[in-house]
Specification:
four-stranded antiparallel sheet; 15 helices
């Protein structure tokens, strides 16, 4: 008696059959409380506090970020489904072991569970709930049956979590969970580590570093779409662009950025670096890094003479420049385009030399960047 599980039923998909009525969330909690009232202190307390309600604990399948990475049901004909709940449903069919590769089945499983969760979205109530790291919003199959973003046993789970100490959510859990399951809304939940001598702390204490890392200093325009550039060491999402010979690409530089950290701004220049996604081994330390393709500087006087359609910013047309190096870039990995100024770059390396904490935190290029793929859209004439 201590080894069985309670399974809370849910309303079936529309089948036309006469079925038992599913317990409401309130009735589920009432059942849970009545079982505790009856069996606490008895020989069945082990089951009460263990196996009976194990389905609703963090150890069960619903606690997965994506159950398609861990759980599968295999039929005798080779068909693979999510579980007994998803069996026979095309949205939870992953493939057949006799006709599909293991890699394809695993990829399909992960994708279909991701889509199942995203069809229903996520509610603010779940985002702000202190139990999200335990619940993960529940079974994706049942959520789609109910057309609800929440677990159909939400109240029962909250009661069970209250009665047991499962611990608090790990640091930045919400951001990591959202990034994996609802990436479009993830960035606003990121909480940067700002402890002593972390990079955000070092920037906060140094006005010159604030200029180096200014998130408004550089704006890239690609075929009319703008990207506000940030340091790759600080941003929480990665933008990718796809460009070719005919792409219109402009870089806007805030006018104040060209004067910052420079005793003689006329000598200052916009500083661009283009790196391939392919790697090489550099230097005495033999560190593997992205291959450096191009460095290019445009001095302030030239920028001042260019027309700009963005108020408060200089402008440079860099499409033709990047096209010169298109055939040198990686075609399989994302390439990297960095922007800074000569003065900012010099201050970055001075800080590197003077401050070991900064050296450790900003060992890789910290400048504002974007990742890109270069695609030659032109087709050879037959």
């Amino acid at each position: 008696m201590n080894d069985f599980n309670f399974m809370i039923g849910f309303k079936p998909q529309d089948s036309g059959e006469v079925c038992l009525t599913a317990l409401s969330e309130e009735a589920q909690v009432e059942l849970y409380n009545r079982m505790h009232s009856e069996f606490e202190g008895s020989d069945l307390e082990e089951g009460l506090k263990g196996a009976w309600f194990a389905e609703f604990t963090p150890a069960y399948c619903t606690n997965c970020d994506n159950c398609g990475e861990k759980f599968f049901l295999l039929e005798k004909n080779g068909d693979v489904y999510s579980c007994v709940r998803g069996q026979g449903n095309p949205d939870f069919y992953y493939g057949n072991i006799y006709t599909d590769s293991v890699e394809d089945i695993l990829s399909t499983a992960k994708t279909k569970i991701y889509l199942a969760h995203n069809r229903q979205g996520i509610e603010e109530e779940c985002i702000s709930c202190s139990h999200l790291h335990l619940c993960k919003t529940g079974c994706p199959f049942v959520k789609n049956v109910y057309q609800s973003p929440k677990s159909y046993t939400c109240l029962l789970q909250k009661q069970l979590y209250k009665d047991n100490d499962y611990g608090e959510a790990p640091e930045n859990f919400l951001y990591c969970y959202m990034l994996k399951n609802h990436p479009d809304g993830a960035e606003k939940y990121y909480k940067p580590r700002v402890g002593p001598n972390s990079l955000p702390d070092l920037i906060l204490r140094d006005p010159k570093l604030q200029a180096v890392y200014d998130p408004e200093a550089f704006v890239l325009s690609v075929d009319g779409e703008e990207y506000a550039l940030r340091s790759q060491l600080l941003k929480t999402e990665r933008d990718y662009i796809f460009i070719g010979k005919k792409s219109s690409i402009k870089i806007y530089i805030k006018k104040e950025a060209m004067d910052a950290l420079s005793d003689y701004p006329v000598n200052n220049a916009l500083y661009m670096m283009l790196l391939s996604g392919d790697t090489v081994v550099y230097g005495d330390e033999q560190r593997e890094k992205q291959a450096h393709i191009m460095t290019h500087q445009i001095f302030k006087g030239v920028l001042e003479s260019n027309e700009s359609d963005k108020e408060g910013y200089y402008c440079a047309d860099i499409g033709p420049l990047l096209a010169l190096y298109g055939n040198k870039l990686s075609g399989t990995r994302s390439n990297n385009l960095f922007f800074t100024t000569t003065a900012m770059r010099e201050y970055h390396y001075t800080k590197h030399k003077n401050n070991a904490y900064y050296h450790f935190n900003a060992m890789n290029l910290p400048f504002q960047n974007i990742e890109l793929y270069y695609i030659d859209f032109e087709q050879e004439e037959e």
